[in-house]
Design a protein that fits this description.
Order of helices and strands: HHHHHHHHHHHHHH
Radius of gyration: 30 Å
Structural class: mainly alpha
Organism: Salipiger marinus
Keywords: TPR repeat
CATH superfamily of the largest domain: Tetratricopeptide repeat domain
Number of domains: 3
InterPro entries: TPR-like_helical_dom_sf, TPR_rpt
Strand content: under 5%
CATH class of the largest domain: Mainly Alpha
CATH architecture of the largest domain: Alpha Horseshoe
Protein name: Flp pilus assembly protein TadD, contains TPR repeats
Shape: elongated
Distance between the termini: 126 Å
Length: 286
């Protein structure tokens, strides 16, 4: 008579064990999928920073940081996406929050300094950089140091920082262009010309360096375009720059001739050059 009861207890035990097994399996699966989700989240975060529309990236990281406020990667993503979206005041606040995190790094402080400069808070950016150990030597740190030294007209320090920054990157065209513009602003036209030439050699498509090179040559009274790769539109724009440089030096007739060349060179109507030429003709007539 006791056998049916024993049988029921055995069945109940088996069912209980099965339930435990399923519970263990579920926990294991949950942990496994949590790991997968974390990996997918990291990949998605990288994609949002590099490929997404800036506004969409900001929205993604705002939501992610709100859901998981302890995640430093989401905090960094939000700060970086705000920089990308040119929301500079918000970016500076976001990077400041990142720096307050106990696991933040010197790189985060460099990013804060960059955001502060973008927000035109140069004094605070300098303070942030000064607090970073000198052993933290990165391209971005020295690029920012050079920019601040430029702003303070500490030319020797600026040159030193620019030189170090150039040596810390495999793509120095932009920093060479910045260094050249620093020289140009000081009136060191020959050195500026060489730096712009080096920048173009590194990156032949960098139009800013081409335009600055023409400015440096024009400031020295050299009104011929250098030999370099350029499109027809670029050639017209550079001729206009050269023409305006000539006018600035007082060589008005040469400048007008260069502006006419710019109008003839441009494949469409070159409104900016036309306005400049009309203004010069009007001033001469008056």
């Amino acid at each position: 008579m006791r056998h049916p009861i024993l049988g029921l207890l055995c069945v109940a035990g088996v069912i209980g064990l099965s339930a435990c097994d399923r519970s263990i399996d579920k926990d294991a699966v949950d942990r496994e999928f949590a790991g997968v989700n974390a990996l997918e989240g990291a990949g998605l975060s990288e994609l949002m920073l590099t490929a997404a529309d800036p506004a969409e990236a900001v929205t993604y990281f705002q939501r992610s940081a709100a859901e998981q406020p302890e995640r430093l990667d989401f905090m960094r993503g939000l700060a970086a996406s705000l920089v990308k979206a040119r929301r500079n005041s918000e970016a500076a606040i976001a990077w400041a929050k990142v720096v307050e995190h106990p696991d933040s790094t010197s790189d985060d402080r460099v990013e804060l300094a960059d955001a502060l400069i973008r927000n035109n808070d140069w004094a605070r950016a300098e303070q942030v950089l000064d607090a970073i150990p000198p052993t933290h030597e990165t391209f971005k740190r020295y690029r920012l140091e050079a920019m601040i030294a430029d702003g303070n007209q500490e030319w020797q320090k600026a040159d030193s920082f620019y030189e170090v920054a150039v040596g810390l990157t495999n793509t120095p065209a932009t920093i060479l262009n910045n260094w050249g513009f620093s020289k140009l602003s000081r009136g060191d036209h020959t050195e500026a010309e060489q730096l712009f030439t080096d920048a173009i050699r590194q990156e032949p498509s960098l139009f800013t360096a081409k335009n600055n090179l023409v400015l440096a040559r024009g400031a020295q009274g050299n009104y011929t375009l250098p030999v370099m790769t350029m499109t027809q539109i670029e050639r017209a724009e550079l001729l206009q720059t050269l023409g305006l440089a000539a006018v600035k030096r007082g060589d008005v007739e040469i400048g007008k001739g260069l502006l006419r060349d710019a109008l003839e060179t441009h494949p469409q109507h070159f409104e900016a050059a036309a306005r400049s030429l009309e203004a010069l003709d009007g001033s001469v007539t008056n």
